[in-house]
Amino acid sequence: MKFCRQFSVFVASVLAASAFCTDAIHTTPDLSTRKLQGEKKKSLGFGLGLSVSAFFPTSSKIKSAFQSSTISFGLSPTNIYFKDGMHTDFDLTVLTDSRSGSRYTVVLPSFGLLKSFGGSQQRSGVKPFVAARLGPAYYDYSILQGVNRTSERGWGLNANTEFGFFMNEKLRLSARYDWISASKGFRFDGLSLGATWQFVKF
User: Cα–Cα distance between 45 and 39 in angstroms, integer?
Assistant: First the structure.
């Protein structure tokens, strides 16, 4: 199945990125570091943030009906982890656009694993992370091509991989790619670049 093969490829890329980050960030701890390692590490998790993102679809049909990119603003759930290691992760992403009589909304809840790096002693600053997730995709679209209109509501599958940075316990910067199963010949795959400022944590 093509979708499963694509998912296997991006999981492999996530594992490779994980090994790269581990080698790149490893340092020798000093006395203050060893002291902090003996303390309880700080870990921030789920919260709500203000976000801005740019979505770049890869399908020629979507780019023709809409544009090569879509900028969006809003509130979004976000996770910030300052404790090193592997974390279970939940994400909710909504892709939407409307232009020239065509529209689409794709809702992507996904679950997976996130690994953060940077030294367990760090309680602030910059910490890189990498994540891989899998989940359902709900799409609702009506796309006009010439005089023909295609409309559909339904469910599919989504797989995504993400690489980014947690900054100053509040800001999250990331690049993410989504693979989404096709619907009536339309694919909503694409790259997202985003920034989220977390103002509430739970």
Answer: 19
Could you give all domains of the chain from N- to C-terminal order, each with its CATH number? Answer: 2-201 (2.40.160.20)
Please tell me what DSSP assigns to residue 9: H
Give residues with Cβ within 8 angstroms of 14, minimum separation 6: 130, 131, 132, 161
Q: Is the pTM of this model over 0.85?
A: no
Q: How far apart are CA 171 and CA 115, in angstroms?
A: 17
Helices then strands, each counted (H, E), the chain? 3, 8
CA–CA–CA angle 135, 108, 201 (5° rounding): 100
**Which of 83, 98, 88, 92 is CA-nearest to residue 39?**
83
Tokens 């090193």 correspond to 84
How far apart CA 156 and CA 160 sit, in angstroms, is: 14
Three-state SS for 147? coil
pLDDT digit string, tens, across residues 65-104: 998 888 988 888 888 876 778 899 999 999 999 998 999 9
Cα–Cα distance measured from residue 94 to residue 190, given in angstroms and rounded to the nearest whole number: 13
Q: How far apart are CA 116 and CA 119, in angstroms?
A: 9
Half-sphere exposure of 4 (CA within 13 A, CB side): 1
